[in-house]
Amino acid sequence: MILPIIAYGDPVLRKVGTDIDKDYPNLTELIANMKDTMYNAQGVGLAAPQIGKAIRLFLVDTSPFAEDPDLSEEEQLFLKDFNKVFINATILSEEGEEWPFSEGCLSIPDVREDVFREETITIEYQDENFKMHTETLTGLAARVVQHEYDHIEGILFTDKISSLKKRLIKKKLENISKGKVKADYRMKFPLLKRR
Asked: Which amino acids does the record list as binding Fe cation (predicted)?
């Protein structure tokens, strides 16, 4: 089932997510619905706060990046198959040189800005079967995971841009929170006046 994506301005996007366990209600259905929602919106990641749940759950599928001709064949193959569910994740380290990449967010449609992130992360998480994993990721896979991880920490990519750029997009962000934006997917707006 495709769920509405929570728009910028909703307090749930600023909450630090709580850990969940295997008894979380309807978890299998929730993950399936999140995948449907992400693919419907043509996203490469989706975090539970973006569908209104302040829990430590996000998923990623970097296969759209696998078509990038600027990447090595090895990177393309890795990204093509990088499709995972992350539960109760903790980033253990972020290392390497910071590099810019134009990021966007399904909760903030029509806004893209360069965000600097470190190139390598080590993350500990549980998969949908609650099996524990520790992985080191680099490049675009690391970036997508960092972006989604920020969501479960109550952080948005717009928090990581310069104060000048924040001022330049301030009106756009206000309009998004009021529902004055067109998206190709269902959204839920916090400040939309109910009639």
From this structure: 105, 147, 151
Phi/psi at 19 (5° precision)? -65, 150
The verdict on whether residue 105 carries a ligand-binding annotation is: yes
Residue 133 known to bind ligand: no
List, by residue number, the catalytic residues.
148
Q: Find residue 123's DSSP bridge partners.
A: 91, 135
Q: Which of 86, 97, 101, 95 is nearest to 140 (CA)?
A: 101
Q: Does 194 score more than 80 pLDDT?
A: no
DSSP-derived 3-state class of residue 109: strand
Is 147 part of any known ligand binding site? yes
The residue range of the domain holding 101 is 5-187
Query: How far, in Å, CA of 127 to CA of 123, rounded?
Result: 12
pLDDT digit string (tens) for 71-115? 899 999 999 999 999 999 999 999 999 999 999 999 999 999 999
- Give the rounded distance of the alpha carbon of 160 from its chain centre: 14
Indicate the DSSP class of residue 55: B
pLDDT at 169 over 70: yes
CATH of the domain at 136: 3.90.45.10
As for how many domains the chain has, the answer is 1
